[in-house]
Amino acid sequence: DQQVKQNSPSLSVQEGRISILNCDYTNSMFDYFLWYKKYPAEGPTFLISISSIKDKNEDGRFTVFLNKSAKHLSLHIVPSQPGDSAVYFCAPPGEYGNKLVFGAGTILRVKS
Amino acid sequence: GAVVSQHPSWVICKSGTSVKIECRSLDFQATTMFWYRQFPKQSLMLMATSNEGSKATYEQGVEKDKFLINHASLTLSTLTVTSAHPEDSSFYICSARDSGRPNTGELFFGEGSRLTVL
Fold it and tell me: Which of chain B's residues have a Cβ under 8 Å away from the Cβ of A41?
């Protein structure tokens, strides 16, 4: 049972433009969502989070939007930079609020 | 910021041998650590939850006797791949939650360990 889905395996964006990465979830009990960024052969690093009591959280170039009724998250990166090229994972907390359940990830390529 | 260190970062072993991977939280205590496995071009798959002072909780389909987890202290968890076979070759990543900040939801990840079994 896939509780988190990132339906776009990859995304290619021109430098300076907006990157939009999407994530859908099935469990309405999720109350906290996190985005992680991962470079090849490295562990993921935390990027940005959002609590279910909010519908938007912004941190510099990164903004996460939450639509609870649609069970949908999106991460906006603007302006996109070549260094943003990585795999992005959407990760709502798991069943017990401890473990993370990762989506399949979206590979972002920012072209200069 | 919180740092999680994994060792070794890269290991090659012969089929049938056992390999131990360490995961250490360097500047915080972690009663709970997690072990993930990543196959090429795939997502991170949670293998088990490592609990300090008690038995690990394994995800469905993960062999307990194959992947031994020990969480002997608040800063160290180890994953031992026993009788390794080529299909065990993968990228293993650990993560830890800061026990002093349990409500943030954030996990800190190690750098990962690349295991190649010949």
Answer: 91, 112, 114
